[in-house]
Amino acid sequence: MYIKNALIVLFMIISTTLFGQIKVDDVGDGWKAKVDSALVLIKTYDSVKYELVLKECKTINFWLGDFSSNLPPNTILISVKDLKLGSINNIACVIVHESLHLNIASCSIKMDQRLEEYTCYKYELEFLTRLPNVEPWLKSHT
Of the candidates 43, 35, 27, 122, which has an alpha carbon nearest to the alpha carbon of residue 87? Predict the structure, then answer.
């Protein structure tokens, strides 16, 4: 009984430590778990980008838009379309990409919209090169 309780407490501490700063909406069919898996992927393969995610993102919400986006100062909006693709790698890329948009906004950097988007895609591609077993369609999309 003590071991079971200790394991439960340990799991709660680890979960809070890993994602204590980011609130993920718990809606949809396992969407929160997919986002949590994507956050673990980012933390595992690119600690620098993970630190930027933690710095800039406080909330991850979901929306019905055609593409994922962000809502400064600190919210990432993941499109339901991106979630339905079923790729944890894609969700991780969305989080990395949108966190850079949030960083650009929080630093009050003024940049042409096309240049900003190019910069964020380049940043996302740098992340993709660190991941094992990336889907070919994901590389070609970026």
Answer: 35
